[in-house]
Specification:
- The chain is of the alpha/beta class.
- The chain has 2 domains: 1-31 and 111-221, 3-Layer(aba) Sandwich (Rossmann fold), CATH 3.40.50.300; 36-107, no CATH class.
- It has 10 helices and 5 strands, in the order βαβαααααβαβααβα.
- The chain has helices at residues 17-27, 36-48, 56-64, 73-76, 79-88, 92-106, 119-123, 137-150, 157-173, 195-213, and strands spanning 5-10, 32-34, 111-116, 129-134, 186-189.
- It has a 5-stranded parallel sheet, with helices on both faces.
- The longest helix is centred in the C-terminal third of the chain and has 19 residues, at 195-213.
- Bound molecules: 2'-deoxycytidine-5'-monophosphate.
- 2'-deoxycytidine-5'-monophosphate binds next to α2, α5 and α9.
Length: 221
């Protein structure tokens, strides 16, 4: 029996894809890679060394140095890093280097849960299950604000919304691997869903696909 399971999860910023990916990885006992952190690591290195974000060759050098086993979420969570990550993510050289590292992670024995923008389309086109998670920009902005406030910060919902719309636009209009659902992705709009409801809906999709593939051993783990 095929013991390998790769779950690809894509979607825009603050759609809930990261939370769903962690929950699914936990449930199916699979390693998880948030591929956004790899682009953030490139951006963080460039910002902290004062390198120009419009220099694709320097960004590619920074990408070579990204170590998947050493992605420290703390400094990579900053708002400035997210925006810079979206800028360096347009360079094909950067994407080639990072996609190669991401595929090595996805190809480990047993499989993995991968989340990002181009997992179902480019990184893991043969994934067993592909999910594309969306939510309206307004809902995503409200979620991001709650997130910031729960960590003691403040922000205006208008600024967050403008930022989300700008990042969506950049991520979905770039020439190389734009953010979009794979043809065979299952779409899940979480605008009206709690985290728990979204997790149950995602799990139901995964189990339906696995049942069709007769990978029933995963259903009982
Ligand atoms: O998911 P995130 O917010 O951490 O991603 C930060 C940026 O990285 C995102 O705006 C675009 C880029 N990214 C990408 O181009 N491809 C991915 N698979 C993941 C992220």
């Amino acid at each position: 029996m095929d013991q390998n399971l790769v779950i690809a999860i894509d979607g825009p910023a603050a759609s809930g894809k990261g939370t769903l990916a962690r929950r699914l990885a936990d449930y199916y006992h699979l390693p998880h890679l948030d591929t956004g952190l790899t682009y953030r690591a490139v951006a963080h290195k460039m910002l902290s060394e004062g390198l120009a974000l419009d220099d694709a060759a320097l960004a590619a050098e920074a990408a070579q140095q990204v170590d998947l086993s050493n992605l420290d979420k703390g400094p990579l969570s900053a708002h400035a890093v997210a925006d810079a990550a979206s800028q360096v993510a347009v360079y094909p050289q950067v994407r080639r280097i990072l996609v190669d590292k991401q595929r090595q992670f996805a190809n480990q024995p047993g499989g993995a849960v991968m989340d990002g923008r181009d997992i179902g389309t480019v990184v893991c086109p043969n994934a067993d299950v592909k999910l594309y998670i969306t939510a309206s920009p307004q809902v995503r902005a409200a979620r991001r604000l709650r997130d910031i406030e729960s960590r003691g910060g403040t922000a205006s919902v208008e600024d967050i919304l403008a930022d989300i719309v700008k990042r969506d636009e950049r991520d979905s209009s770039r020439a190389d691997s734009p953010m979009r659902p794979a043809q065979d992705a299952h779409l899940l709009d979480t605008s009206e869903m709690s985290i728990e409801a979204a997790f149950l809906a995602a799990r139901a999709i995964v189990e339906d696909v696995l049942a069709k593939q007769e990978k029933t051993h995963y259903m009982s783990r």
